[in-house]
């Protein structure tokens, strides 16, 4: 039997760069699309022929890749890896960058799930964050995906946007629920250092909602989704029953995955590997050496914190000390007894002799919990 692992492919191209974005994605380098997909094909050829329960093409904006390049890539993935019969195969699509005919092409090549980066249905807010689409593009893209036969859609929204009010957020939630996607990711905006948005905020050109307003938005989003029957299974993710994202859940559970493309990371055979974020460097390495990855060596503490950072995101699944011990070969309870007791006293977790889980308060303060555990 081939080894089992989820597959991730990174497409680093975007039509324009959003003001808040610090991902390894780039606008204005379309001339690299062809050599990049050739390099990616080379990396796939060199990879082990894994059995894949899930495949995820993310970015960047994968839907910005011209149809013939995407088709060749999809055929390469299908031809090389053993995709399980019930594979979950997702592509990220941004409104205005893919049509019904793109979606039909993808479906013919085993893609069965789309993650659509809407972020907001409010044109004024989309402008404030420099998104390259408007509200009509978002609706049209979702309609095109349904028309092409996709019955597993995820819609991304962001709250805490510059100029956003609680009533704007509630309106976005009503629109989202009216479209009835199978899955929704609702993230809080993080003001990343060095982004154009940070400069705009510093100069007073736009202002962000304060912490209380942002907190209320998060609560309102969760409440609206819960009332509509979506399960809140991860800090920022909600799904109708049985529609949780299997690919991301594999990350959160610490299962093996192979990442291909610039900036992609892998966790395979117990080793962590990373490719360079620079697109040209990635292409050159693939052309000259046939490999672009380097191993990331970490100590036991860093591995434990990394694992918890991901695993704690699955808010409904308690973490047993045996599970952590089996996964990381560490005496978790022995090492972390003091911070765990402290976190329980603060109401952030509920602790038993054999496991712990986040409390409702802990869900909102995950960063503080990780900080406390990191002090050991
Ligand atoms: S589309 Fe996504 S990856 Fe591209 S710049 Fe915007 S936020 Fe970043």
Mean pLDDT: 95
Number of structural units classed as domains = 2
Q: CATH topology of the largest domain, what is it called?
A: TIM Barrel
Named CATH architecture of the largest domain: Alpha-Beta Barrel
**Which stretches of 5+ consecutive residues score pLDDT under 50?**
none
β-strand amount: 15-25%
What Rg do the Cα atoms give?
A: 21 Å
CATH class term of the largest domain: Alpha Beta
CATH H level, superfamily name of the largest domain: Aldolase class I
Structural features, described:
Helices cover about 45% and strands about 20% of the residues. By secondary structure, it is α/β, with parallel strands linked by helices. It folds into two domains: about 5-250, Aldolase class I (TIM Barrel, Alpha-Beta Barrel), CATH 3.20.20; about 300-375, Orthogonal Bundle (Arc Repressor Mutant, subunit A), CATH 1.10.10.920. The strands form four sheets. It has a nine-stranded mixed β-sheet with strand order 9-10-8-7-6-5-4-1-11, sandwiched between helices. Strands 12-13-14 form a three-stranded antiparallel β-sheet, with no helix packed on it. A three-stranded antiparallel β-sheet has the order 15-17-16. Strand 7, helix 6 (about 165-180) and strand 8 form a beta-alpha-beta unit. The protein is globular and about 55 Å long. It starts with 5 loop residues before the first strand and ends with a helix. Bound molecules: iron/sulfur cluster. Iron/sulfur cluster binds near residues 14, 23 and 117.
């Amino acid at each position: 039997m081939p080894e089992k692992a989820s597959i991730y492919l990174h497409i680093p191209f975007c039509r324009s760069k959003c003001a808040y974005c610090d991902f390894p994605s780039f606008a204005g380098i379309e001339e690299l699309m062809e050599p990049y997909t050739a390099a990616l094909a080379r990396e796939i050829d060199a990879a082990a022929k894994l059995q894949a329960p899930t495949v995820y093409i993310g970015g960047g904006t994968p839907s910005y890749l011209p149809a013939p390049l995407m088709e060749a890539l999809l055929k390469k993935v299908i031809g090389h890896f053993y995709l399980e019969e019930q594979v979950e195969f997702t592509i990220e699509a941004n409104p205005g960058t893919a049509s019904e005919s793109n979606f039909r092409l993808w479906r013919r090549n085993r893609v069965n799930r789309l993650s659509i980066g809407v972020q907001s249905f409010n044109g004024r807010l989309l402008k404030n964050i420099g998104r390259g689409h408007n509200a009509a593009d978002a609706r049209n893209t979702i309609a095109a995906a349904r028309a092409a036969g996709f019955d597993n859609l995820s819609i991304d929204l962001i709250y805490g946007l510059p100029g956003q009010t609680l009533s704007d957020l509630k309106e976005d939630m009503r629109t989202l629920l009216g479209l009835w996607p199978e899955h929704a990711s609702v993230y809080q905006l993080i003001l990343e250092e060095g982004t154009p948005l940070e400069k705009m905020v510093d100069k007073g050109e736009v202002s962000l909602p304060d912490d209380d307003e942002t907190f209320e938005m998060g609560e309102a989003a969760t409440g609206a989704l819960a009332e509509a029957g979506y399960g809140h299974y991860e800090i920022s993710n909600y799904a109708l029953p049985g529609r949780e994202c299997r690919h991301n859940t594999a990350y959160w559970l610490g299962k093996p995955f192979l990442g291909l493309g610039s900036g992609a990371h892998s966790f395979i055979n117990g080793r962590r590997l990373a490719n360079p974020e620079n697109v040209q460097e990635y292409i050159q390495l693939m052309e000259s050496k046939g490999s672009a990855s380097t191993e990331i060596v970490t100590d036991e503490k860093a591995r434990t914190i990394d694992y918890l950072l991901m695993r704690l995101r699955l808010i409904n699944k308690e973490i047993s000390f045996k599970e952590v011990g089996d996964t990381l070969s560490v005496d978790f309870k022995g090492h972390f007894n003091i911070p765990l007791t402290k976190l329980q006293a603060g109401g952030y977790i509920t602790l038993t002799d054999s496991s712990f889980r986040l409390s409702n308060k802990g869900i909102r303060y995950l960063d503080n919990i990780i900080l406390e555990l990191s002090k050991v």
